[in-house]
Amino acid sequence: MAQQTRFVCRLNELSFSIYFSLLLVTEEQGCRRGSVFLHWVGYPLTDYLYPVLRRHRIHLYGSHSIALWWLLAVIIVVCVHLLGRLGIPRALVRGASGIVAVAGCPLLLLPPCNITNLLLSTTVWMFLYFEVIVVAVCVLLYLSRRWSAKTTLGLLFLGLHSAIWGWMTWGRIALPFWAVYLFLGLCSSVIWAVYVSQDRGTAKAPIVGTSANPF
Prior knowledge:
mainly alpha, 215 residues
């Protein structure tokens, strides 16, 4: 793997881990009260870190969700990197990161989760479901090389996808922080698209000498 492609690969792993952990924490807190998963993830915080901070009179009011988010992001990025070292194909990470990047936020907004309690007509909900399915299929086609769209066209397509969801949520969601989900989703999608494009170019390039370690 070329040095530039390796850097983008690591950047894709990082953005996937940050975004996926945010979606997981949001889904577990919003759709599952008393989440066993978050209790397990937050065990080092509640049993070790927080008592030490309290002894030093440092209080993280309302920051537990953010701490869970970043702790889970660190766990995921380490696991993804270790799986790569163990020989897990890069295609698996590419597929997972692509699907999460384009469909992660919409799936939180769509029923049955509907984390922000959006009130839309049945026709609009059906259109949004259809749009997510189309985008997910395009991701799979792009990964399988059955859709040879150029990077610029792909970025425009991702921009249109983000614009649709930004327009649907603009003014309907009272929490300004929700824009972070849309922004991180767009950034993760762009990084993923660039990574896949560069990785394809590396695969097509002739290899001179010994084969390079894919990780």
